[in-house]
């Protein structure tokens, strides 16, 4: 099972740090590009997929048309929302579950495939991000500690998660280090900039 967490693409509600420097309209354009990319790299995977929206389920859209189930994120913070999504997946008896967001333009179908290959060998797989977070987290059974007592959206998340993994004596593997796009500097250093006009 692949879980994809996205924000509903609403002007002024997405990429707020990026919008503070390039404007809300351009930030929404960037986010829509990221959504398209995330959909396109996820579609080829021959596994069940579900998209979790932040605010509302829009009904028929490109995700549902591409075979994704649709759910609404539930929880008071990102950790709770992710944990609840994993709980639901494991309740449905999936044996390998991974979650990604929609911020990483460098993520590829091959890296996603590698993540599931790694879950055949170990308990947890993590895709580390340059900002100190992660772009992917996968596991074969629920480990609640990985979602608790984190300061989300900060540069401590990855280290705190890896510390939990060590404390639980779980086997794990790391995917390539990639860049999330959250700021103008991230955008300038990403290949996505090449596709953007006027930035």
Summarize the structure in words.
With 199 residues, the protein is α/β, with parallel strands linked by helices. The chain has a single domain, classed as Spore Coat Polysaccharide Biosynthesis Protein SpsA, Chain A (Alpha-Beta Complex). Helices cover 36% and strands 16% of the residues. It has seven helices and seven strands, in the order βααβαβαβαββαβα. It has helices at 16-22, 24-42, 62-65, 78-91, 109-119, 157-167, 184-188, and strands at residues 2-5, 49-53, 69-72, 97-100, 124-128, 134-139, 172-174. A seven-stranded mixed beta sheet has the order 3-2-1-4-6-5-7, with helices on both faces. A hairpin with a 5-residue loop joins β5 (124-128) and β6 (134-139). The chain is globular. The N and C termini lie far apart (36 Å). The model has no long low-confidence stretch (mean pLDDT 94).
Summarize, please.
With 199 residues, the chain is an alpha/beta fold.
> What is the tally of beta strands?
7
| Overall body shape | globular
Number of helical elements: 7
What is the alpha-carbon Rg in Å?
16 Å
CATH architecture grouping? Alpha-Beta Complex
Instruction: Let me know the CATH homologous superfamily.
Output: Spore Coat Polysaccharide Biosynthesis Protein SpsA, Chain A
Give the class from helix and strand content and strand pairing: alpha/beta
Low-confidence stretches: none
Overall mean pLDDT: 94
**Strand fraction band?**
15-25%
CATH topology: Spore Coat Polysaccharide Biosynthesis Protein SpsA, Chain A
Largest sheet: 7 strands, mixed
- The helical percent reads 25-40%
Alpha-carbon distance between the termini?
36 Å
CATH class reads Alpha Beta
Number of domains: 1
H-E order: EHHEHEHEHEEHEH
Strand order of the largest sheet: 3-2-1-4-6-5-7
